[in-house]
Description:
The complex is a heterodimer.
Chain A: E1 4-7, E2 10-13, E3 19-25, E4 30-38, E5 44-51, E6 57-58, E7 67-73, E8 76-81, E9 90-98, E10 108-109, E11 113-117
Chain B: E1 3-5, E2 10-14, E3 19-21, E4 24-26, E5 32-39, E6 46-52, E7 60-61, E8 64-69, E9 74-79, E10 88-96, E11 104-106, E12 110-115
Parallel strand pairs in B: 2-12
Antiparallel strand pairs in B: 1-4, 3-9, 5-6, 5-10, 7-8, 8-9, 10-11, 10-12
Amino acid sequence: GAVVSQHPSWVICKSGTSVKIECRSLDFQATTMFWYRQFPKQSLMLMATSNEGSKATYEQGVEKDKFLINHASLTLSTLTVTSAHPEDSSFYICSARDMVTGGLNGYTFGSGTRLTVV
Amino acid sequence: AQTVTQSQPEMSVQEAETVTLSCTYDTSESNYYLFWYKQPPSRQMILVIRQEAYKQQNATENRFSVNFQKAAKSFSLKISDSQLGDTAMYFCAFMKIGTNAGKSTFGDGTTLTVKP
């Protein structure tokens, strides 16, 4: 079945530094990937939609200069949290939309990244 | 804009029993898909079942089935013969198809605990 690899699974960084999270579709091509943020026992909050070869579309209230998204190929999207602060600590999840099925079989999710900023 | 409502924050069920999780949604779209995803303690999101809005027949996947009432905008998930491994947070999700398709709208989730 479709697999999305997300790395790292957890990261601890110092306040003020940047962290890059990778989301890679392993056995399918994804023209669109989505980045979510999830707080404990809460729902997924969509942060941005990443489209291959074009600029990401950010949801209202999400700082695009803080959460940089790059989707340089059909199998890789990255989220960089710049100048991280403790309030950025959260669980980040990506999902990928299969170019062939268009997501009609449901999206495949990465395993998530737990970011802790100290 | 679409909204998805899961009115049961937490539920519990005895092993081998049946449980139903509720989901209602609001949309003006006619062409869409509905999904149930499971998020176990590992936090890996897993697709449980999907339903095409144009299909009247309710989807089933082994022990999982849905009751899709399009007019009422209701999409409940029934889990039969509950197993300990079903313990997870369950999310109902709406996805528009067609023009500008793709983004899913998720409910707030229902935490299900299966008790031995």
